[in-house]
């Protein structure tokens, strides 16, 4: 079963590749909220969408996201 963080990570990756950085950052915030609310696990590995996009986006969005996944 695919979980919400994976789907949102793929969406954020598509948004980032399309140059829609504000939307990608907002989607990463949705990932963070979903992980916190549902108590799910997600990985910030650079080969996975969430890890790749959070590392590529400048600013504190990726830092806040990393704090949730620890």
Write the topology of this structure.
Layout: H1 4-17, H2 21-38, H3 49-56, H4 61-69
Helix pairs in contact: 1-2, 1-3, 2-4, 3-4
Structure in words:
The structure is a single chain. The protein has 70 residues and is mainly alpha-helical. The protein starts with a helix and ends with a helix. The model has no long low-confidence stretch (mean pLDDT 77). It is globular, with a radius of gyration of 11 Å. Helix 1 packs across helix 3 and helix 2 packs parallel to helix 4. It has one domain. It has four helices and no strands.
The figure for the number of domains is: 1
Radius of gyration: 11 Å
Q: How many runs of DSSP E, i.e. beta strands? A: 0
Fraction in helix: over 70%
The structural class is mainly alpha
- The N- to C-terminal Cα distance equals 23 Å
Which descriptors apply to this entry?
70 residues, mainly alpha, 4 helices, 70% helix
Characterize this entry briefly.
The protein is an all-alpha fold and 70 residues long. The protein is built from 4 helices and no strands. It has one domain (4-42, 60-69).
């Amino acid at each position: 079963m695919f979980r919400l963080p994976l789907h949102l990570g793929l969406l954020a990756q598509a948004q980032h590749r399309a140059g829609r950085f504000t939307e990608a950052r907002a989607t990463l915030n949705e990932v963070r909220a979903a992980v916190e609310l549902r108590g799910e696990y997600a990985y910030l590995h650079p080969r996975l969408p969430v890890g790749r996009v959070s590392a590529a986006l400048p600013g504190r969005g990726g830092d806040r996201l990393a704090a949730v996944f620890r």
